[in-house]
């Protein structure tokens, strides 16, 4: 089948529902036990029963409680007061997470791609045994013919941990998440090159105690990174100065003392000019720079000509404003945060831009200081012992020809590239497992993704919803939602290390199952059961929790547990000796590692292409009530926002005769036209050289009944990818669109 | 006792968490809401202002909805809150027409519904669901007759406005500006 073109199958084209019967027996061994009527501290006022969880609607993974009413229905989900990520307050997506469970469009049973008598490809409803049989045979064949290194996993969900373990046990390290090379990767590499460590998640920005925060294209408040939104609000209360750089008048910009409506793609010039002002007006933290940094003199020389006047011509930000804002940063330092942002894959020179952000923070002395960046801590929770994983002979990196060696995690686009057969490539990947990520909407350059998918011998998609990616799968495995399953513990960094438990509030609906159970069953069938040395996940969790002086029973009661910090202080002590994890042991203003690999040791501004006449730069972002394309069908969240719009400046609207609410098609520079029309929002909040849309809409799968055809997809218009030569990030802000009044 | 709420427009990001929290707390059917977000943009690029407001029933002291209700279903309750008695409401819609804030809707079961300030929670010493969930903590609720309540203190300290004061309803929803 893999040799044929893979036809997209709508999951609506299903066989009879009666086929599900008789598949329940697999549950017997690992039955999820939910206390029906728990007594004691679980019994809350007004007859609601609560169970702990951590949220799966986004990556922030806030811990909370699922409340069930007397009818046994989920009434609401509320934050856990002891959770540092949420402080007891969930965001709209977490509060509306209940809609994931009740969504009637959910995947209901395993599906296998078959060819009907008419030659048409379709999905057949299958039992779990049939689905596992199919996958087992295909994986065994791929391993036999090509080696285990030709298996890959794409994951952006908690269940991915177990599929990762499955792959590692088989001998593959091709495990990747689009959250790296399509999102935060350049930031990690830029900060590692400077401070010897990355930021990870949640970012250790000490916003609550910050006196000055600089946001560059980061739209906190529209991205509902819960803890950061909360702390920004605290900072506003305390009178902190906020400086926002954005071609769009974002929500954050509206809360700012300074909004710098920058010309898109010129941020690096502004950053370098700020560095210039700090150095040449001697406003940097001299003691800190002297003690901790390397390469100050080179940097000083490097930025000599990068004056605010120089930057004015590039960025359109007035020199006086550049100076004034640099001074504001300096007045507040070290309690100043030049926020690293999160989705930073914009123009292909992103690692260098984030280097400039890191350098600014270093000059301000804010790294490791109160109101700047705190020193995070993370609990160490040992796993259940298992044999060592076999060492793979090859990975996706072998297909990269020595490029992107500074990437500290696997590139989703790299794995995708390594799947497309080529004469020059060492390893062509043959099988994908895709867990909780809709690659069709996630990866830029869709034709390339399709080429890779068409080259596969096997694609298994594990999801709760019939996202577009399921239509290209050979096998679809319906995962139960986070409200119906245990998962591995949440162990995330913060000011205080915590662990938190997700336990099922409900029994899995339909014939859906948790990912750990799927991975374990597959491992056993493939002879790798020894890597899953537990009968049930409860057993594994209890083992792990007892190693950190807790237990499953305790965590079921409290949900979140704080553990002691290993490093005693949140900040560096005054004058403390610190060895940074860089070549020089110092904070590298001049990066010796980048130089070693043949890249600029200090960031340089280069001009990027601008939209041709009649075209506008496509800028995309987030809305607070949605997470990527994942929530676009959630009944509670579509009730808040059910489609995106294209934001158009009134001047542009006048030129094109566009009216508010009018539907238009968007066409990009490569003549790709949006599948669906999108409504125009005429607003002063966007620059005249750009348009803006919220990511995650324009779904093409009819089975997503609330999301189908609502709004347009930015992803399909992103065909120009500006690769970051340092770490392989996919810069996506170099796409230009124009308006069309009809599709043909 | 005089219950009131203040919303800090300087902190509200318009995320709609208050809307969905109210829906799940009060079983408001999908497609309806007791509270909502208003976004107002003012000015010309790049001289712009943006205000986000979480709005709901103003629990007016001089409520046109109570005055015009033919059955007495709409009435004043604890702390001056305006409430609707479901089984007295005939769904005539007079209150909906009279409300200057468009705060009421007809529930699919036939009666008129609206914000209750979550009196069922308040009576247990909890905050209304919208206030309790708000990630920006931009909402303050309490008794204006108590000078130490959150809402009294913030109203004393900050500049504020009310909506459509010229309607003479004496609204009890304050927006900090």
* Residue fraction in strands of chain A: 15-25%
The string of secondary-structure elements of chain B, in order, is EHEEHEEHEEHHEHEE
* Count of the separate structural domains of chain B: 1
General shape of chain A? globular
Low-confidence stretches of chain A: 1-5, 12-45
DSSP helical segment count of chain A: 22
What is the residue-averaged pLDDT of chain A? 92
Q: Biggest sheet of chain B: strands, sense, closure?
A: 4 strands, mixed
Number of strands of chain A: 27
DSSP helical segment count of chain B? 6
- Order of adjacent strands in the largest pleated sheet of chain A: 5-4-15-14-13-6-7
Straight-line distance between termini of chain B: 25 Å
User: In which range does the helix fraction of chain A lie?
Assistant: 25-40%
Keywords (chain B): 4Fe-4S, Iron, Iron-sulfur, Metal-binding
Domain 4Fe-4S ferredoxin-type (chain B): 3-32, 48-79, 80-109
Protein name (chain B): 4Fe-4S dicluster domain-containing protein
GO molecular function (chain B): 4 iron, 4 sulfur cluster binding; metal ion binding
Task: Write up what this structure looks like.
The complex is a heterodimer of chains A (744) and B (177). In chain A, helix 4 (160-170) links the parallel strand 6 (151-155) and strand 7. The two termini of chain A are 33 Å apart. In chain A, the strands form seven sheets. Chain A has a seven-stranded mixed β-sheet, with helices on one face. A six-stranded mixed β-sheet of chain A has the order 21-23-22-27-20-24. Chain A folds into three domains: 1-180 and 411-566, Rossmann fold (3-Layer(aba) Sandwich), CATH 3.40.50.740; 201-375 and 571-596, Dimethylsulfoxide Reductase, domain 2 (3-Layer(aba) Sandwich); 616-740, Barwin-like endoglucanases, CATH 2.40.40.20. Chain A is globular. Chain A has 744 residues and is an alpha/beta fold. Chain A has 22 helices and 27 strands. With 177 residues, chain B is α+β, with helices and mostly antiparallel strands. Chain B has one domain (3-176): Alpha-Beta Plaits, CATH 3.30.70.20. Chain B is 21% helix and 25% strand. In chain B, the strands form four sheets. Chain B has a four-stranded mixed β-sheet, covered by helices on one side. A two-stranded antiparallel ribbon of chain B has the order 2-3. In chain B, strand 4 and strand 5 form a beta hairpin. The longest helix of chain B is centred in the N-terminal third of the chain and has 10 residues, at 17-26. In chain B, 45% of the residues are buried. The mean pLDDT of chain B is 96. The A-B interface holds A 45-46, 75-79, 89-92, 95-96, 98, 221-222, 224, 226, 229-230, 232-234, 236-237, 249, 251, 253-255, 259, 261, 624-625, 635-637, 639-641, 649, 683-688 and B 10-11, 13-17, 19-21, 23-25, 30-31, 33, 41, 43-46, 48-52, 120, 124, 132-138.
């Amino acid at each position: 089948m893999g040799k044929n073109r893979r036809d997209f199958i709508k999951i609506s084209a299903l066989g009879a529902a009666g086929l599900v019967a008789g598949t329940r027996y697999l549950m017997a061994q690992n039955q999820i036990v939910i206390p029906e009527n728990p007594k004691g501290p679980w019994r809350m006022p007004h007859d609601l029963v609560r169970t702990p969880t951590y949220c799966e609607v986004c990556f922030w993974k806030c811990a909370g409680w699922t409340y069930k009413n007397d009818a046994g229905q989920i009434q609401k989900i509320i934050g856990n007061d002891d959770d540092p990520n949420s402080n007891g307050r969930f965001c709209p997506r977490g509060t509306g997470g209940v809609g994931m469970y009740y969504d009637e469009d959910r995947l209901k049973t395993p599906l296998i791609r078959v060819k009907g008598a008419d030659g048409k490809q379709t999905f057949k409803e299958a039992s779990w045994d049939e689905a596992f049989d199919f996958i087992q045979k295909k994986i065994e064949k791929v391993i036999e013919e090509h080696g285990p290194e030709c298996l890959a996993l794409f994951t952006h969900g908690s269940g991915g941990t177990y599929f990762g373990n499955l792959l590692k046990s088989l001998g593959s390290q091709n495990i990747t998440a689009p959250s790296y090379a399509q999102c935060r990767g350049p930031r990690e590499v830029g900060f590692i090159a400077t401070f010897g460590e990355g930021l990870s998640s949640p970012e250790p920005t000490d916003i609550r105690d910050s006196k000055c925060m600089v946001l560059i294209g980061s739209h906190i408040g529209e991205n509902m990174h819960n803890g950061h939104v909360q702390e920004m609000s605290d900072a506003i209360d305390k009178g902190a100065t906020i400086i926002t750089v954005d071609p769009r008048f974002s929500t954050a910009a509206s809360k700012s003392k300074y909004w710098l409506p920058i010309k898109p793609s010129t941020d690096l010039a502004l950053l370098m000019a700020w560095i210039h002002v700090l150095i040449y007006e001697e406003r940097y933290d001299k003691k800190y720079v002297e003690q901790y940094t390397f390469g100050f003199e080179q940097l000083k020389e490097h930025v000599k000509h990068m004056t605010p006047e120089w930057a004015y011509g590039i960025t359109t930000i007035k020199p006086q404003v550049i100076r004034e804002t640099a001074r504001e940063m300096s007045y507040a330092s070290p309690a100043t945060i030049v926020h690293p942002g999160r989705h930073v894959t914009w123009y292909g020179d992103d690692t260098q831009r984030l280097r400039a952000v890191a350098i600014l923070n270093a000059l301000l002395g804010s790294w490791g200081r109160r109101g700047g960046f705190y020193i995070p801590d993370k609990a160490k929770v040992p796993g259940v012992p298992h044999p060592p994983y076999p060492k793979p002979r090859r990975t996706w990196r072998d297909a990269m020809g020595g490029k992107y060696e500074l990437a500290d995690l696997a590139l989703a686009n790299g794995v995708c590239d390594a799947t497309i057969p080529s004469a020059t490539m060492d390893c062509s990947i043959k099988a994908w497992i895709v867990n909780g990520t809709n690659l069709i909407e996630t990866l830029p350059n869709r034709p390339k993704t399709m080429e890779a998918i068409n080259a596969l011998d096997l694609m298994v998609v594990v999801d709760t919803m019939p996202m577009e990616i399921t239509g290209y799968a050979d096998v679809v495995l319906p995962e139960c939602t986070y409200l119906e399953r245990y998962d591995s513990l949440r162990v995330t960094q913060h000011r205080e290390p915590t662990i938190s438990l997700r336990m099922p509030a409900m029994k899995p609906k339909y014939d859906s199952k948790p990912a750990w159970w799927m991975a374990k069953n597959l491992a056993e069938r493939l002879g790798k059961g020894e890597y899953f040395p537990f009968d049930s996940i409860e057993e594994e969790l209890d083992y792990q929790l007892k190693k950190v002086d807790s237990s499953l029973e305790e965590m079921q009661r409290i949900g979140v547990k704080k553990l002691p910090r290993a490093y005693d202080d949140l900040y560096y002590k005054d004058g403390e000796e610190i060895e940074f994890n860089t070549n020089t042991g110092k904070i590298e203003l001049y990066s010796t590692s980048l130089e070693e690999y043949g890249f600029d040791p200090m960031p340089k501004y280069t001009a990027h292409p601008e939209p041709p006449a009649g075209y506008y730069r496509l800028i995309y972002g987030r809305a607070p009530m949605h997470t990527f394309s994942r929530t676009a069908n959630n009944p509670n969240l579509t009730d808040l926002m059910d489609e995106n719009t294209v934001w158009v400046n009134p001047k542009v609207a006048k030129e094109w005769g566009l009216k508010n609410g009018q539907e238009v098609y968007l066409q990009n520079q490569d003549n790709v036209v949006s599948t669906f029309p999108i409504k125009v929002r005429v607003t002063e909040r966007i620059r005249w050289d750009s348009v803006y849309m919220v990511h995650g809409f324009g779904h093409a799968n009819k089975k997503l009944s609330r999301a189908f055809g609502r709004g347009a997809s930015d992803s399909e218009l992103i065909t120009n990818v500006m690769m970051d030569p340092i770490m392989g990030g996919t810069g996506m802000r170099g796409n230009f669109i124009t308006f069309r009044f009809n599709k043909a | 006792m005089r219950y009131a709420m203040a919303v800090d427009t300087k902190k509200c990001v318009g995320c709609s968490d208050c809307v969905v929290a109210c829906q799940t707390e009060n079983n408001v059917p999908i497609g309806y809401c007791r509270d909502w977000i208003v976004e107002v943009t003012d000015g010309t690029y790049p001289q712009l202002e943006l205000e986000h407001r979480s709005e709901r029933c103003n629990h007016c002291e001089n409520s046109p909805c109570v005055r015009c209700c033919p059955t007495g279903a709409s009435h004043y309750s604890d702390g001056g809150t305006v409430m609707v008695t479901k089984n007295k409401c005939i769904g005539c819609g007079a209150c909906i027409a009279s409300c200057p804030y468009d705060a009421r809707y007809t529930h699919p079961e036939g009666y008129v519904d609206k914000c209750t300030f979550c009196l069922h929670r308040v009576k247990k010493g909890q905050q209304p669901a919208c206030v309790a969930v708000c990630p920006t903590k931009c909402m303050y609720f309490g008794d204006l007759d108590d000078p130490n309540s959150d809402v009294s203190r913030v109203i004393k300290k900050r500049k504020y406005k009310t909506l459509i004061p010229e309607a003479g309803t004496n609204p009890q929803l304050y927006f900090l500006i």
